[in-house]
Amino acid sequence: MTAHVAGQKKQAVAELSSRIAKGKVIGVVDIHGVPAPAFQTIRANLRDSAEIMMLKNSLMKLALQDVGKQIKGVETLTDVVDGQCAVVISSLNPFKLFRQLDATKTKMPAKGGEISPEDIEIKAGDTPFKPGPIVGDLQKAGLPAAIERGKVVIKKDKVLVKKGETISRDVALVLSKLEIYPMTVGLSLHAAYENGTVYGKDVLAIDYDAYLSNVLQAAAGALNLAVFVSFPTTVSIRPMLSKAHMNALNLAVNASIANEETIKLMLSKANAQMLSLASKVSTEGLDDELKGILSAVPKPSEPKSDGGKKEEKKEDKKEEKVSEDEAAAGLGALFG
Predict the structure, then answer these.
(1) Which among 50, 80, 236, 253 is placed 20 to 30 Å from 120, CA to CA?
(2) Does domain 2-105+186-205 have CATH number 1.25.40.10?
(3) What residue ranges of the chain have pLDDT lower than 50?
(4) Architecture of the structural domain at 120-182
C-alpha cells in the first residue's frame, strides 16, 4: 500500500513538472478560504487563460525544484509555497495574470473564527431593525444598542474587532445581520515567474490608473521638450511644423509680406489700426459709414457722482481712448 501511494505521488509530481516546464508564466496562488464551489467556478472562468493545479505543498515544491534544474529561477517559487496554495500556469504576463486573479475576489460574511483583515467599526445611528431580541444580540456582540422612538439605534461609534484579532461567532452573526462582509475571498497571486525573473506580490500590485496617468504625463512632457528644443521625431515633427508655420505667418504679417495666407490678417490688422486712429480724431472729418461703425462700438458706462461733472467727462473720455488703444494693442499682439 505504501509503495502504491508513493508511485502515485511520483506520477503527480512528474505530471506537474511537465506542465510547468511547458508554461510561459508560472505562479503560486493562495486559495485559503475560497469555498469549493466558488473555486470551481473561478477555475472554469480562467480556463482560457490559466490552468490551476493543486497538490500538497511538499509535492509542489518537488515539482518546482525539478523544473528548476532545466529552467533557472523557477525553483525560487518554492519560497512562497505556504498555507493553502496551488500552481497556476498561464499565457498571460505576470501583471495581467495578477489583475485577472485579483478580479476574482469578492466580499464574504464572517462565520466566526476568522482573523479580521482590518478594523471593523460600527457607526452610531439608526439600524433597519425593529425592537425585539435583536437588541440583545447587538449588546452581546459589544454594541451599545438601545430602543429610541420605536427604532433600534447604535448609541455611539464602536470598533467591534481590531485588525488582526479573531472575529467571534456572536460578532460574525451581528455583522451578517448588519450586512457587513469583512472577509475578502478569492485567488491571490503570491509570485510569478517569467523569462528568468520572479515577480513578487509587492511588484505586481500596482495602481493601473495612477501608473497610466504617470506615463501620459511623462509622454506629454517629453513631447513638449522635443518641440521646444527642435528635436524631430515621428511624434514631434507635426507640432514642430505647426509651430514653425505660425512663427513664419507672424513674421510675414509684421513685415507686411503679402501672400494668400497673410493678406486677410494684414487687412484685419490695418482695419483695427484705422478704427483706433479714427476714434481719436474729430467726427467732422469722417464719412457716414465710418461714423456708423464707430457709433456701434459700445461705450464704457459713466460712473454717477454728485460733483465734478466736467472732470468726470474728461476722465471718461480718457478711459474710452485707453480702452480702444488697448483693443488695438491686443490685436497687434495677436500678430506679434
Answers:
(1) 80
(2) no
(3) 1-5, 313-324, 326-336
(4) Alpha-Beta Complex (3.90)
